[in-house]
Design a protein that fits this description.
- The chain is mainly α.
- It has one domain (about 1-205).
- About 85% of the residues lie in helices and about 0% in strands.
- It has nine helices and no strands.
- It has helices at about 1-10, 10-25, 30-45, 50-80, 90-120, 125-155, 155-180, 180-210, 215.
- The longest helix is centred in the middle third of the chain and has 33 residues, at about 90-120.
- The protein is elongated, with a radius of gyration of 23 Å.
- The protein starts with a helix and ends with a helix.
């Protein structure tokens, strides 16, 4: 996105730098929720509490939406002055104010993606989240955003593409998590633990069968 913004000109690149810097800071909110959800869901599965795991994942999703809404309101309320934190150029401030509504909408989907991605990690299904993100971002968001950017939408087009993709990712992962068979996920969690234990025991047995030189002496 930074490379594409650079092709649009100096002002879009400066505005994109402001937006990306702010977004990296704001991203710590859904990231934190995702880490907490991952740990909580994993603990619930480990205690054979399927209902508790489902409840934790659902609460995390709603919490991320609420927090995303709070951030959205803050960005919309300060959008005409937000860029002044980083840059006092009038053109940059104006362009940032035009693009911030898309960035604000992005926060809700970003939060949902973070919390549901955390739930999938807690379930040991992180490969699903990785596949969904890979296809949505590189297969959809980036090409669509670049196309829009160079067909009349400018910098806003880049963020429209991101919004569309991330909402698809967020709600897609939420559906996957919500429709999960949590009793089955408990069984899978213990199957993984048993497998890891067998591997560890096998490695320990291999070491005991091959004592060190010092031990032989």
């Amino acid at each position: 996105m930074a490379l594409a913004a650079g092709r649009l000109g100096e002002v879009p690149l400066a505005s994109q730098s402001v937006i990306m810097t702010a977004d990296q800071v704001l991203n710590t909110i859904p990231f934190g929720v995702g880490v907490a959800v991952s740990a909580r869901v994993g603990n619930m599965l480990g205690s054979r509490n399927a209902k508790g795991a489902a409840r934790s994942a659902n609460v995390g999703a709603w919490l991320s939406i609420i927090l995303g809404g709070v951030v959205l309101a803050m960005l919309m309320g300060t959008r005409n002055h937000f860029a002044k934190i980083f840059n006092d150029d009038v053109k940059v401030v104006t362009l940032t104010a035009e693009v911030l509504p898309y960035v604000a909408l992005f926060q809700i989907a970003d939060g949902l993606n973070g919390s549901c991605g955390g739930a999938l990690r807690g379930m040991g299904r992180q490969h699903i989240g990785a596949a969904v993100n890979l296809l949505s971002y590189y297969g959809g968001a980036l090409p669509l955003g670049v196309w829009l950017a160079f067909h009349g939408w400018g910098l806003g087009g880049l963020w429209v593409g991101q919004c569309i993709a991330l909402y698809l990712v967020g709600f897609g992962e939420w559906v996957i998590v919500a429709w999960s068979n949590w009793d089955y996920q408990v069984e899978q969690a213990f199957a993984r633990m048993d497998k890891d234990e067998l591997v560890e025991n096998g490695q320990a047995g291999s070491i005991s069968q091959h004592p060190s030189v010092d031990g032989q002496q």
